[in-house]
Amino acid sequence: MNSKSSKPKHIIIIMDGNGRWAEQNGLLRSAGHKVGVKVLRNLIEHAVKLELTTITVYAFSRENWQRPKKEIELLLDLFISSLESEVKDLHENNIKLNFIGETDKFSKKLKKSMSESESLTSNNSKLTLNVALNYSGRWDIYNALLSIIDDMASKKITKNEINEELVNKKLSLADYDEPDLLIRTGGERRLSNYFLWQIAYTEMYFTDILWPDFNVDQFDLALDWYAKRQRRFGKTSEQIGENKNA
Ligand code: IPE
Ligand code: IPE
Ligand code: MG
Predict the structure, then answer these.
(1) What is the CATH architecture assignment of 7-245?
(2) Closest atom of ligand 1 to CA, residue 59
């Protein structure tokens, strides 16, 4: 495994703080979410310049259904309008869009926008943007369990074949490198049911900056911080053969 952790192959982001940003600026929470989309857009442009390959953002958690109905409706409308306005640009920039999470609950219109943007961009290869919508880490894990139980019941696999590798294969993001870096904006030091299994060795960067204020310079700071980490994966520094504090 690569211990020299200069550039993360896979970055996962919890874009938090839109509501507080809006309140601090005397605006409605919706305004914070709208600015949040623009921030993501700028960041993706920047990530392409840096030749990063995979970014996965948390756009809506399963727990977010507990928010006021009005805010949920606004967020869902914003997802549709953002897809409509951004997908062409993403495609022209050779970016692949992929959604993870349970989509059943969404409106026909949103589901259509999602599947159309996925098929339009499916062969793009510069950067993959995974968007977690109606996602939660626990949901991901129990889904993997259900799938393994089904495979056993239909005799596709035996108990002896159940191992970490198989669980990995059943989870969202199975096709991507394990997340190297987590960035959470907005001041909280928690995961809020984002990836659980997949983050066993993810480096975690927390910043108090609210998502609408998060810019490319802030992003570069997170990358600089990441580049200084020594990823040991259970080994000693000596085994890794580098001591960054020396
Ligand atoms: C994150 O910002 C966006 C979503 C959860 C959809 P918030 O809306 O959670 O903003 P705060 O945390 O209330 O400031
Ligand atoms: C996490 O933020 C979910 C997203 C950013 C989509 P929340 O604002 O929902 O997290 P909590 O409720 O503060 O833990
Ligand atoms: Mg929040």
Answers:
(1) 3-Layer(aba) Sandwich (3.40)
(2) 6
